[in-house]
Amino acid sequence: MNIAASVGPALALEIADAESIAELRNQAEGCSRCDLYRNATQIVFGEGSGKAEIVLVGEQPGDREDLTGKPFVGPAGQLLDHCLDEARLDRKRCYVTNAVKHFKFTPRGKRRLHAKPNAGEIRRCAWWLGAELNILQPKLVVALGASAVYALLGPKVKLTPARGHILQPANHPPVLVTIHPSYLLRIRDEAERHRLRLEFVSDLHKAAEFGAR
Ligand code: URA
Questions:
Q1: Fewer CB within 10 Å: C terminus or N terminus of the chain?
Q2: What burial class does residue 21 get, using C-beta atoms within 10 Å of its C-beta: 0-12 exposed, 13-18 middle, 19+ buried?
Q3: Can you tell me the distance from the alpha carbon of 26 to that of 30, in angstroms, rounded to the nearest whole number?
Q4: Is residue 103 in contact with ligand 1, taking CB distance under 6 Å?
Q5: For 139-157, what is the mean pLDDT?
Q6: Residue 3 Cα, ligand 1 centroid: separation in angstroms?
Q7: From edge to edge, which strands make up the β-sheet containing 166-167?
Q8: For ligand 1, is residue 48 a contact (CB within 6 Å)?
Q9: Per-residue model confidence (pLDDT) at position 6
């Protein structure tokens, strides 16, 4: 599906002074483009194959990711891994990153509750995402959830109508829009959860087929 005309300006592919993801990650260590670095333990940069043809983009690191420094290793990451297996999309062939690279949370007693990044935080952090994509030049980017859709495609593209579609913005790798795995973790109704999980796996399978072309 090609609806580039309605996509609007997509994320700019930034030209960083770095030739590899490792170099870019080093530069990002000291990032203070927004205030989220103040309370986070560390930056959680993207991770995976430097030759990845598929890039998966989530929202922001969660509690486990903040502590380990690795993306998608907590409950949402474990669910993502199961769904990737079912979709026959090998995580080792992908590069996994987030729209926002620092954990945003609200303290509640001893717990740190996920807080949604706002539009300004997403826009500032998009510089790193644009630089990652410019180095990797993937065949396909998979936007997991609304924050990734916002970072990659701007405010006009809405998750629900675009879900399952591959959008082709100008001068940008195509973007497959799907839900975020943590959304599945929050659905109480078992039948609904099952239905949306099947859709999610089908979207990931579409990504696997696109990457194999
Ligand atoms: N949710 C995300 O969006 N990214 C992670 O890395 C973990 C959970």
A1: C
A2: buried
A3: 8
A4: no
A5: 96
A6: 28
A7: 47-48, 94-98, 54-58, 140-144, 175-178, 166-167
A8: no
A9: 47
Model pLDDT for residues 8-55, shown as the tens digit of each residue: 557 888 888 899 999 999 999 999 999 999 999 999 999 999 999 999
Site of tokens 């195509």: 174
Q: For a pocket test of ligand 1, which of 45, 72, 80, 81 has the largest count of ligand atoms closer than 8 A to its C-beta?
A: 72
pLDDT in tens, 84-108: 999 999 999 999 999 999 999 999 9
Inform me whether the pLDDT recorded for 4 exceeds 70: no
Q: What atom in ligand 1 is closest to the CA of residue 71?
A: 6
Q: Which CATH class is domain 3-211?
A: alpha beta
What are the extents of the domains in the chain?
3-211
pLDDT for the residue 9: 59
**What is the rounded (10 degree) CA torsion for 165, 166, 169, 172?**
150
C-beta 72 within 6 A of ligand 1: yes
